[in-house]
Amino acid sequence: MILLLGSFVVLMAIGFPVALALGGSSMLFVFIDERIPLLAVLHRTADGVNSFPLMCVPFFIMAGLLMNTAGITERIYSFAVALVGWMKGGLGQVNVVGSVIFAGMSGTAVADAAGLGTIEIKAMKDHGYDPEFAVGITAASSILGPLLPPSLPMVLYGLTANASIGQLFVAGIFPGLLLAAMLMCMVGYFAHVRGYHRDAVFNLGELGRQTVRAFLPLMTPVILIGGMRIGIFTPTEAAIVACVYALFLGFFVYRSLTFKALCKVSIETVEITAVVLLIVAGSEIFGWLITTTKIADQIADMVLAITERPWMILLLVNIFLLLVGLAMEPVPCILILTPIMLPLMEKIGVDPIHFGVIMVFNLMIGLLTPPVGIIVFILGRIAGISFERATRAVLPFMVPLLITLGLVTYWPEMVMYLPKLWYR
Fold first, then answer.
1. How far apart are CA 327 and CA 295, in angstroms?
2. Phi first, then psi: what are they for 149, rounded to 5°?
3. Number of domains the chain is built from
4. I want to staple 158 with a disulfide (CB 3.0 to 4.6 A). Which of 165, 270, 286, 413 is the partner?
5. Residue 100 is part of which domain span?
6. How far is CA 223 from CA 23, 257, 363, 409, in A?
7. Other CB atoms closer than 10 Å to residue 374's CB: what's the count?
């Protein structure tokens, strides 16, 4: 255990990329411990990327990029303004609602922040909102992307935990909507304290026009979730449907997508997918060694020796995941930690689907905290403020995030209601 985990930590500490640190520590362990045949290592590494569910990763990535490139985000934003812009702190409320809608198309927090964030922060600054407030609410609402279906982190967790991706998708619906409601309440509080006014007048005719204008993009989550619910296609096939639908809207309906833009999106998709697959390949052999050598069981026994109370173990797990999220991005964290922590969760009676939502939620919060804080960095650049100011701007919004995380952790019925209802 010390050799495998210790060498991984050392390689990460001296600056190795995550994929090489995973592969390097695994190979070092295999060379020293002669019980593991080298041929088995090669087979496990190849099996890590030879997975039908893994095919949805590039298609979900490409669908999100196409939605941004084709200008579909602007239609979503205009619809959200007509829908909730009349509320107190209007554009802050629009920010949250826009993220809920866009979550049904991209499935990643970074795509949400980079796509909608550019439009939202500029509009909020033009309407007199503090840049810090604009960055804070945009960063917090971007977490909705990985919670609501389709979610790329949920796909990777499902692959690693051998859990149903469809159940993971629907398990995140109630937590995502609860977080959206909490953030809208937070916006209302700030609007009252700082005197933010309404940014639009409610007009039923304008709402109707924007609904028609954004109707086809709004149908994306309906098509994906509905198709999976009634069994027309699997979650993997849903990713292909999302990609084809985005191409159809961009090329034939709105005519805003060019062949040059498609080539750029394709290249970016390949680059992102290649990085993910390298990490998946490295994590497959790493996770297999952890399972084969019973390291996960040893860690579970060590934790249970400290306390056997499930609520205390869940608290420790949450704190650990939040701390890990400070230093590492979600994808490698999910792939590395799932095989280590899942046996512990099973021993205390936590469903793998429930734990998947807990893990993804924790690691998404890590995207808002230094030193990684990639979302805060992106939004700080968009708003023209320093990384330090952007980080401070996010701190008040940690309150609804952590409250919702606590409810997700200790109220499993909320998380598991839809999976049990839809997949019984």
1. 23
2. -75, 150
3. 1
4. 165
5. 39-422
6. 39, 21, 28, 30
7. 16
380 neighbors 398 (Cβ within 8 angstroms): no
Which has the closest alpha carbon to 311: 209, 204, 191, 409? 409
The predicted model scores a pTM of 0.85
Do the domain assignments include residue 21? no
Tokens in use for 336?
């590395």
Task: Give the pair of three-digit tokens for residue 338.
Answer: 């799932």
**Cis peptide before 17, with omega less than 30 degrees from 0?**
no
Angle formed by the axes of helices 352-366 and 310-327, to 10°? 40
Query: Is residue 159 one of the residues assigned to a domain?
Result: yes
pLDDT tens digits in sequence order for the chain, 424 residues long: 677 778 887 887 787 887 788 888 888 888 887 677 777 777 777 776 777 667 777 888 888 788 777 777 788 888 999 999 899 888 899 999 988 888 766 667 776 777 777 788 888 888 888 899 999 999 999 888 889 888 888 988 998 898 988 899 999 999 999 999 999 999 999 998 888 888 888 889 999 999 999 898 888 888 888 888 788 888 778 888 888 988 998 898 888 888 998 999 899 888 888 888 888 888 778 877 877 777 767 777 788 888 889 999 999 999 989 888 877 778 888 988 898 899 899 999 999 999 999 999 999 998 888 766 778 888 888 888 888 898 899 999 999 999 999 999 999 999 999 999 887 6
Q: How far apart are CA 256 and CA 351, in angstroms?
A: 44
Query: Which token pair is 274?
Result: 């290649």
H-type alpha helices, 85-231: 90-103, 109-126, 131-142, 144-147, 152-161, 165-171, 173-194, 204-213, 215-229
- Both tokens of 232, joined, read 């027309």
Q: To which residue do tokens 């994590």 refer?
A: 283
Return the axis-axis angle of helices 412-422 and 398-410, rounded to nearest 10°: 60
Cβ-contact 269, 62 below 8 angstroms: yes
Rounded-to-integer distance, Cα 186 and Cα 137, Å: 9
- Residue 384: which H helix or E strand, with range? none
Is residue 312 one of the residues assigned to a domain?
Answer: yes
**Which among 187, 224, 229 is positioned nearest to 60, based on CA atoms?**
224
User: In 230-373, which residue ranges form alpha helices assigned H by DSSP?
Assistant: 235-248, 259-292, 295-306, 310-327, 330-347, 352-366
The residue among 17, 389, 369, 397 whose CA lies nearest residue 182 is: 397
